[in-house]
Design goal:
The protein has a six-stranded parallel sheet, sandwiched between helices. The longest helix has 24 residues. Helix content is 46%, strand content 13%. The radius of gyration is 19 Å and the shape is globular. It has one domain: Decaprenyl diphosphate synthase-like (Undecaprenyl pyrophosphate synthetase, 3-Layer(aba) Sandwich). The chain has ten helices and six strands; from the N terminus they run H-H-H-E-H-H-E-H-E-H-E-H-H-E-E-H. Strand 3, helix 7 and strand 4 form a beta-alpha-beta unit. Helix 3 runs parallel beside helix 10, helix 4 packs across helix 5 and helix 5 runs parallel beside helix 6. By secondary structure, it is an alpha/beta fold. The structure holds farnesyl diphosphate. The site of farnesyl diphosphate (FPP) has 19 residues, from helix 4, helix 5 and helix 6. The site of farnesyl diphosphate has 19 residues, from helix 4, helix 5 and helix 6.
């Protein structure tokens, strides 16, 4: 066991690929409550195969399915996936349309299984600016799953961390101007309560595949003390084993939240 742990710690590929070993190394009582993922690399993955970007996005949906299923099995509280940013509108209209169609297809196809697995689906972002078909599919998924008590799946759509903060500040300003809130009482808790993720724990771990080392305007407030887990694996290749690797690695981190080691 010790040899296996040392190999794992050294990043030995064979041991990292051993799902049974990763499961046994995982302490189920110390799992992260909230996992956030930037589902990156679909375009490059497709390009390397000589295929259009849409091929990569479609393959990315398979990864999403597997990661959602595994997160629910593990008993995580919240999984937040970055599906479409406020900046992604700059992409060709054809690609935007494909992403919206994939979202609608995903929700229609998966909602039964999501409900069977006690998962609730929420959208975070400026949802009112999404196409009608996407808004309708999200509303149906939310309505059908809102009473589920297991994993919460946050799908970040037309999401930007800065936009989220601007909207929160505006709403707080309205309460101040109505006399419902004293500016002196504004604290971190109040700001958190005005974010799309109000009431949810901050992410414990952020996973970014595809070898890029950026936050990309994702959960800017919520990531204050989040552990980052970066991998060169492209999102369409991301599987259950990679999530387990991230979980095991997370449990080896020394989280001090600005304090000192206990
Ligand atoms: C980033 O990769 C990925 C996206 C902008 C979209 C992510 C969407 C999916 C995984 C599928 C659809 C989502 C749902 C919720 C059904 P990129 O295209 O920027 O990759 P690149 O950096 O290699 O170009």
């Amino acid at each position: 066991m010790l040899k296996k742990l040392v190999n794992l710690w050294r990043g030995n590929k064979d041991f990292n690929q051993d799902e049974a070993f990763l499961r046994s190394a995982l302490d189920l009582s110390r799992l992260p409550r909230h996992v956030a993922i930037i589902m990156d690399g679909n375009g490059r993955w497709a390009h390397r195969r000589g295929m259009p970007r849409a091929y990569g996005h479609r393959a990315g949906v398979e990864s999403l399915r597997e990661v959602v299923r595994t997160s629910a099995e593990l008993g995580l509280d919240v999984l937040t996936v970055y599906a479409f940013s406020t900046e992604n509108w700059k992409r060709p209209q054809e690609e935007v349309d494909i992403l919206m169609d994939l979202l609608v297809e995903y929700l229609h196809k998966e909602i039964d299984e999501l409900c069977t697995n006690n998962i609730s689906v929420r959208a975070i972002g400026r949802i009112k600016d999404l196409p009608l078909s996407a808004r309708e599919a999200l509303a149906v998924a939310w309505q059908r799953s809102k009473d589920n008590t297991g994993l919460t799946l946050n799908i970040a759509l037309n999401y930007g961390g800065r936009t989220e903060l601007v909207e929160a500040v505006k709403s707080i300003g309205v309460e101040v101007s109505k006399g419902n809130l004293d500016p002196g009482d504004i604290d971190e808790k109040i700001i958190s309560d005005y974010l799309y993720t109000a009431g949810q724990p901050d992410p414990d771990i952020l996973i970014r595949p595809s070898g890029d080392y950026r936050v990309s305007n994702f959960l800017l407030w919520q990531l204050a003390y989040t552990e980052f887990w970066l991998t060169t694996v492209m999102w369409p290749d991301f599987r259950r084993i990679h999530l387990l690797q991230a979980m095991v690695d997370f449990q080896r981190r020394d989280r001090r939240f600005g304090g000192l080691k206990k």
